[in-house]
Amino acid sequence: MTNRTVLISGASIAGPTLAFWLHRFGFKVTIIERADELRLGGQNIDVRDGAQKIVRLMGLEDKIMEANTGELGVRFVDAHDRIKGVFPKGDSGFGTAELEILRGDLAKILYDATKDNVEYIFGDQITSLNEHEDQVTVIFKNNPQRSFDLVIAADGIRSTTRTLMFGEEPVIKYIGVYCSYLTIPRIESDTKWAYWYNAPGSRVINTRPDNEGTTRASFSFLSPDNGYEKLPLAQQKEILKQKFTDAGWQAPRILAALEESKDVYLDGISQVKAPRWTKGRCAIVGDAAYCPTPMTGMGASLSIIGAYILAGELSRHKDHIDAFAAYEKLLRPYVEDIQNLPPGVPWVAHPKTKLGITIFNTAIAFVSSKMIRNISKLLSGKEKKPKKEKIKLPNYT
């Protein structure tokens, strides 16, 4: 094997997963992270489908299960907290998955699984990449320059490393909705269920349980691309107050906690559309390459699957060019399928009027009703049929 040293930018989900498998396949791996320490916290994510198989191969499935948020499913409610529809955990493809975990907890599990075999550099970032025939010279903001056989960007949807590699070629496609996440104090009426509430004006409020004695909340609202994600945090908070002051349900409680919350995050929900994921000795993986949006429920899982396939193909091929080509050929149809959002998303889930909300809740009640679920199970037979895999994972091990 000719390529032995790899630099990965980003220490969240895709980066450490890629590092885990590259180390297992004999590569020497360094991860650089611009934050001064591992970024913990964050909202609930889940590990689904092929990603669950991969974490099982990594020996991490039990650890993820132990760190589960305990979420029982999703309840849709109205302004008076009356339940309109219920989707229990594992009862459908919608909502709570078997492996439901806080993003920071998953990042910590992946870090612990790699820290003894992978070099981590925190508090620094790549500022320049100079590719040569047999290596890439990397200029850092703080550390001395170094050379690596390969450089991989895994630093999120707004990756600066990706820009160094591809310029403006990858497109961040805004899908018409802003979302803000924050952690708020838990109160006695909070349960182990997640809650979804629609307010007039195409606004949605969610609350979700965690395993830390607090509650995770989010606001989302339809809007043109106004660049809110670029504003200072104080201005973002003012926008949220203006948007949700009259929204009802739990809005007053969440807005009251907004000022004290330490992890408020506001961004436009977007997809990354990149015509290619590799260039020379550089590549992108995870959200930096193909963010599918949180609305698919597949962001973390796709990062894990993509990292596994990229590492596996690099182990399988002697030449990185062949490995990169195989990575794209195998993964791109799967990514395109996930990024192909159902018709009406996100507008269907954000009805504008009270009548629209009534119709939406009626549809939710119908789909989630026990009678419909029982009829579905009866028609499909007593034994639940295994789900057809959308991607066949190679056995690199």
3D structure, described in words:
The chain has a domain at 5-41 and 103-172 and 271-339: 3-Layer(bba) Sandwich (FAD/NAD(P)-binding domain). By secondary structure, it is an alpha/beta fold. It is built from twelve helices and 18 strands.
Strand and helix layout:
Layout: E1 5-9, H1 14-24, E2 28-33, E3 44-47, H2 49-57, H3 61-66, E4 73-77, E5 83-88, E6 99-102, H4 103-114, E7 119-122, E8 126-131, E9 136-140, E10 146-148, E11 150-153, H5 160-166, E12 171-185, E13 194-199, E14 203-209, E15 214-222, H6 233-244, H7 251-258, E16 265-273, E17 278-279, E18 282-284, H8 287-290, H9 299-316, H10 320-339, H11 354-368, H12 370-380
Tally of DSSP helical segments: 12
Largest sheet: 7 strands, mixed
Shape: globular
Spatial extent as radius of gyration:
22 Å
Written as H for each helix and E for each strand, in order along the chain, the element string is: EHEEHHEEEHEEEEEHEEEEHHEEEHHHHH
CATH topology-level name of the domain at 5-41 and 103-172 and 271-339: FAD/NAD(P)-binding domain
Mean pLDDT over the full residue set: 91
User: Do you know the CATH architecture of the domain at 5-41 and 103-172 and 271-339?
Assistant: 3-Layer(bba) Sandwich
Q: Runs with pLDDT <50, length 5+?
A: 382-386
Strand order of the largest sheet: 5-4-13-14-15-12-16
The percent range for helix content is 25-40%
Instruction: Please identify the structural class as seen in this structure.
Output: alpha/beta
The CATH superfamily name of the domain at 5-41 and 103-172 and 271-339 is FAD/NAD(P)-binding domain
Strand content: 25-35%
End-to-end separation in angstroms reads 16 Å
CATH class value of the domain at 5-41 and 103-172 and 271-339: Alpha Beta
Number of strands: 18
